[in-house]
Amino acid sequence: MIYLDYSATTPVNEEVLNSFVKACNMYPGNPNSLHKLGVDANHLINSSTEQILNILNIKDYDVIYTSGASESNNLAIKGITDKYSNRGKHIITTSLEHSSINGPLEYLKEKGFEISYVKLDNNGRVDINNLKEILRDDTILVSINAVNSELGIRQPIEEIGALLNNYPKCYFHVDMTQAIGKIKVDLTNVDLFSFSAHKFYGIKGIGALIKKNKIIIEPIIHGGKSTTIYRSGTPSLPLIVSMSKALRLSYENIDSKINYIKEISNDLKEYFSNYELVRINSNEYSIPHILNISIIGVKPETLLHSLESHNIFVSTKSACSSNNAYSEAVYSVTNDMESAKSSIRISLSYLTTKEEINTLKETFKECYKELTCLR
Question: 2-8+253-373 and 14-250: same fold?
């Protein structure tokens, strides 16, 4: 099997899994209990939280443990708007966001909030001048992803955050799901950010919303204090410990991992550029982990299943995207409906071998010949 869908989810690192099992077996107490077993469990959670903050090089932030990035995104957006709607009801985002951003924004639109979409430049990056133009006194939230899940385009988060520092009534939320654990990020000017462990070789079912501790948000799950007052429920100690471990491991030798992924990504780009009907949708601002291409005139699911028949696994759109017949993200950036209707995503990892890349090339050549002959 050749797995090339790492942006959808990653396999669990064996060390991470071992830390989960160890926490299950050695720390049976409820972290909120007052007896020794509870105190020991709570201490381990606090140590994990401190490690996460240190790895990400931030302080004076709250770590709110959630079930994953979708919950974290909902908590950030609804938590800010519930708390600060008296200041205004204007929100700014982009056309490249994940469905767990678009969903709560559509919900808030029905509640009377106004959603503005900042323009993108020719590379799919936020137009900073347009962002300045549409910011208003009643703008209370700007929510922009760090890395788009389909094309891998990295947004100028540092520049956006610096601009928003001039708007103290407006908070900056960043969906970091495709960035944390993959690339280095400067979080200095970010007020809140979301991520999920299963994107960096952790276990599914655990993620976090991390926010500056001076920011107050309204919970969406009520029922008493947990690890923070912002999300009720018995803390899952094994999942929290395992996520902290996964994050630490993901940033070990991060530069060499990125350089290796860049090498195999560039190799694939050069290879695909030799095909007349192939268009490469990812661009120079895309992180190397994500390579989006189209075979013009070939349905993406047709290519996906053709590769699958050879035990090679890629994806079409983001696993959580809408059911549209085309990729909205690809169309937003390329302005080409043919590319948007036929795009697939190849997502790479430091675990991807050069032998797997060579096999992909050989198999793609066969699939391309067969599928383009059927057009």
Answer: no
φ, ψ of residue 313 in degrees (nearest 5): -120, 115
CA separation for the pair 134, 81 (Å, rounded): 18
Residues 214 and 192: beta-carbon distance below 8 Å = no
| Protein fold of 14-250 | Aspartate Aminotransferase; domain 2 (3.40.640)
What is residue 370's predicted lDDT score, i.e. its pLDDT? Answer: 92
pLDDT digits (tens, 9 = 90+) for 106-126: 999 999 999 999 999 999 999
24 is catalytic: no
pLDDT for 361: 98
Report the chain's C-alpha Rg in angstroms. Answer: 21
Closest of 248, 180, 201, 181 to residue 14, by C-alpha: 201
Name the fold adopted by 2-8+253-373.
Answer: Aspartate Aminotransferase, domain 1 (3.90.1150)
Q: Which of 164, 155, 145 is nearest to 69 (CA)?
A: 145
| Among candidate residues 25, 7, 60, the one with its CA nearest the CA of residue 241 | 25
Torsion of CA 200, 97, 113, 104, to 10 degrees: -50
**Average pLDDT of every residue of the chain:** 95
Kindly report the number of other CB atoms within 10 A of residue 290's CB atom: 26
List pLDDT tens digits, range 179-233.
Answer: 999 999 999 999 999 999 999 999 999 999 999 999 999 999 998 778 999 999 9
Exposed e or buried b per residue across 80-93, where buried means at least 16 C-beta atoms within 10 angstroms of its C-beta:
bbeebbeebbbbbb
Q: Which of 170, 320, 367, 373 is catalytic?
A: 320
Domain ranges in the chain? 2-8+253-373, 14-250
153 strand-pairing partners: 286
pTM of this prediction? 0.94
What is the rounded distance in angstroms from the CA atom of residue 263 to the CA atom of residue 165?
A: 37
Helical H runs in the chain?
14-26, 36-55, 69-84, 99-110, 128-134, 157-164, 237-250, 254-272, 300-308, 328-334, 337-341, 354-373
Give dist(CA 248, CA 306) in Å, integer. 37
Cα angle value 26/29/30 (rounded, 5°): 140
* Amino acid at position 18, single letter: N
| Residue 176 main-chain phi, psi, to 5 deg | -100, 15
